[in-house]
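Quick one: sequence plus magnesium ion SMILES, need structure tokens.
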Amino acid sequence: MLVLFDIDGTLLHAHGVGRRSIEHALSDVAGRPVSASGVPFAGRTDPAIARDMLAGSGVSMDEMEPIVAEGLRRYGQLVEAALLESPVTVLPGVEAVLDRLAAESSIQLALLTGNLRPSAYAKLRSGRLDHFFPFGAFGSDDADRYRLPPVALRRAFEFSGRSYRPSECVIVGDTEHDVGCGRESGMLTVGVCTGPHERSLLERHGADVVLEDLATPGPLFRLLRLDS
Ligand SMILES: [Mg+2]
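Reply:
Sure thing.
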């Protein structure tokens, strides 16, 4: 099985470091104040968030793409530096679950996240989790999260030479978008209630399993047909 983990709200909390860094980076590059206020972050990709922030700050479509590209490049540098000052908090049970899954020869761990690749690994390094994830699908691959599952399958093939069917994949995440992109791609989905949402919302969007947190992983292990 290929198990694809989201990062923010699922493995760790970054305490607003991403939000502050992206505001700072986009404001610098756009030459005007760019605010994240009112822009939804949870479950979305960094390029989609950046475009919404810039549009809300009066940047026109004509000016948009060069500012997005340079702003996200700058964001990657700022977030790395900010995480040295303010490290992430790894969520309860995460290390134990990843240790357990990494030890199973039938399980391949990877990422499916809206973070750009550099900021994804910066956050994981801050929590000493990066070594669990040799590859992934990122916001830098596509601004639309719903197009990331096929990217993850392609990366898995490039990494291991193995073709996973969608039914052999599990997405673990904290929002309806994690659940939604997995379901739309025919993958199994596990919701965790350590992000912004309650169990009922993740169940309503069709998660196969919903966990309060990864400290109570029994239903995830059963879904993967492992002894818990
Ligand atoms: Mg998340």
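The beta strands are 2-5, 12-13, 89-90, 108-112, 136-137, 169-173, 188-192, 209-211. The longest helix spans residues 61-85.
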